[in-house]
């Protein structure tokens, strides 16, 4: 359910962004702390890899990412017992990855980004809901692995 909700919400927000923001000026809220603006990102997070040749981006961001997502999905589905934190983390990571993969496949290798946050002169890059799910999932997995490392250290 987490994975499907993540993909569904990501698809819905990207559709709204394409329909409402693609041909309009950015929308600034809360003294530009929240800004909605449409960007087609051919790279990974924060545009990493966008300068690679299109074949390289396709290989890395569609083929390799798709294979990795299939492996992760298979692991989640086949795990006999998985702690709650890594289960949620892997589900968010996979759901976000699938959302961006679907976007890449259906939009000539680019993902739709549309949110930027900031305070004063400090701002994030422009991102989407799938990116939030991916980062949250990775943080949950890191948090879990740190906890596992501490438990293993105490047991030894």
Give structural notes.
The protein has one domain (2-147). The chain has four helices and four strands. The chain has helices at residues 2-20, 54-78, 84-106, 129-155, and strands at residues 27-29, 34-41, 111-119, 122-123. The relative contact order is 0.18.
List the total number of helices.
4
Radius of gyration: 17 Å
Q: For the residues shown, what is the average pLDDT?
A: 92
Biggest sheet strand order reads 1-2-3-4
Strand content: 5-15%
Q: Kindly state the number of beta strands.
A: 4
Q: N-to-C SSE series?
A: HEEHHEEH
Structural category is alpha+beta
Number of domains: 1
Q: How is the biggest beta sheet arranged?
A: 4 strands, antiparallel
- Which spans have pLDDT < 50 for at least 5 consecutive residues? none
Approximate shape: globular
State the end-to-end CA separation: 37 Å
How helix-rich are the residues, as a percent range? 55-70%
Summarize the topology.
Layout: H1 2-20, E1 27-29, E2 34-41, H2 54-78, H3 84-106, E3 111-119, E4 122-123, H4 129-155
Antiparallel strand pairs: 1-2, 2-3, 3-4
For the structure shown, list the relevant keywords:
alpha+beta; four-stranded antiparallel sheet; 4 strands; 60% helix; globular
In short:
The protein is built from four helices and four strands. The chain has 156 residues and is α+β, with helices and mostly antiparallel strands. It is globular, with a radius of gyration of 17 Å.
């Amino acid at each position: 359910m987490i994975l499907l909700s993540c993909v569904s919400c990501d698809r819905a927000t990207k559709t709204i962004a394409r329909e409402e923001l693609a041909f309009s000026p950015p929308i600034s809220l809360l003294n530009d702390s929240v800004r909605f603006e449409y960007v087609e990102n051919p790279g990974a997070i924060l545009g990493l890899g966008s300068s690679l040749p299109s074949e390289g981006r396709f290989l890395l961001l569609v083929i390799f990412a798709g294979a990795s997502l299939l492996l992760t999905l298979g692991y989640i589905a086949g795990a006999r017992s998985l702690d709650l934190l890594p289960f949620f983390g892997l589900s968010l990571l996979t759901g976000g990855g699938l959302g961006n993969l679907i976007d890449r496949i259906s939009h000539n290798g680019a993902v739709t980004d549309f949110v930027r946050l900031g305070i004063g002169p400090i701002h994030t890059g422009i991102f989407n809901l799938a990116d939030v799910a991916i980062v949250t999932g990775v943080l949950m997995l890191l948090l879990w692995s740190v906890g596992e490392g501490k438990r293993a250290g105490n047991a030894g």
